[in-house]
Amino acid sequence: MSKILVTGGAGFIGSNFIRYWLKNEPNDQITNLDKLTYAGNLDNLVDISNNSNYKFVQGDICDFDLVNSLVKKTDLIVNFAAESHVDRSIKNSSDFVKTNIEGTRVLLEAAKNNGGIRFHQISTDEVFGSLNLDDEKFNEKTPYDPRSPYSASKAAADHLVRAYFHTYNLPITVSNCSNNYGPYQFPEKLIPLFIINLIEGKKVPVYGNGQNIRDWIHVDDHNRGVKMIIEKGKIGETYCLGGNNEIKNIEITHKILDILSMGEDMIEFVEDRLGHDLRYAIDFSKAKKELAWEPEIGFSQGLENTIDWYRQNSVWWKKIQNNK
Ligand SMILES: NC(=O)c1ccc[n+]([C@@H]2O[C@H](COP(=O)([O-])OP(=O)(O)OC[C@H]3O[C@@H](n4cnc5c(N)ncnc54)[C@H](O)[C@@H]3O)[C@@H](O)[C@H]2O)c1
């Protein structure tokens, strides 16, 4: 039986992770430390809120005393907590630097001070920068080259995590994952935003000419990979997790329009994001070879299921869609 501190567990990926973990390890005890920013939502976990092996603590990962008191009772920390939206980081990077960098440092310091607690850092493929169309995919050896305040803050956090391994022998692992989609994603991100706009009869805003390419992975495939890294990954190592699913933004838009039986007239091309990275793509052969992990949920099926979920859960998104 393990005692796990999950940070940012009221957000999109973290809440799906807690649900996934407790389903597979019902005897483990999870404490979810979350500040409940605009993106944190306890409704994401309403189905397990009465589980005696689950506990919620509202607080900031930058608060050392709080973090230290929780880490004392912990065998494993999984750090999802972050400011996660690139567009917000372009408008104001302050909270990104505080939470993503200082918050990670506080968690690492508490892990070190309490006897070297096992630590897993949830990172992103965005730390690697932007690929041209003919470049090789990102892998664990790709040098970091972050280009937005968001990805720069995540890159700095990852460097700190690795520094605590090299300097203090802290037992860490890192995963760099591509774009996630699935249920409970805050409706500022492309897939839920587009689905909800269309359900409400509004147009969808496609940046620039829609040619930017992302690799999309279902959140359950991501979380299965994280669990495998925690259980079987080599200490000190990094694992890239991807969906094997490179797709242009405009193609995703068409897929969503098709599933909802709507036409191109619902697309509105808007001014491009500043410094918009052209392409992300992940080579996950290390995770496949060492952990026997690969994504299992095909994009067409995953997208249909996700659209169904948003159709059936309008109460969930109507409550939060105007959160700032
Ligand atoms: N969404 C993606 O496609 C994606 C892809 C790869 C990696 N990631 C990484 O996965 C993690 C989770 O992403 P997400 O999409 O679930 O984000 P999210 O924005 O949905 O959730 C973030 C959660 O962190 C909490 N939080 C923010 N600041 C906090 C603080 N100071 N203290 C405690 N809690 C705080 C928020 O309240 C929220 O519940 C992030 O680290 C992100 O960088 C996301």
Automatic annotation (TrEMBL):
Reaction equation(s) it catalyzes: dTDP-alpha-D-glucose = dTDP-4-dehydro-6-deoxy-alpha-D-glucose + H2O
Top enzyme class: lyase
EC number from the UniProt entry: 4.2.1.46
Cofactor(s) this protein cannot do without: NAD(+)
CDD domains according to UniProt: dTDP_GD_SDR_e
Family: Belongs to the NAD(P)-dependent epimerase/dehydratase family. dTDP-glucose dehydratase subfamily.
Name the record gives this protein: dTDP-glucose 4,6-dehydratase
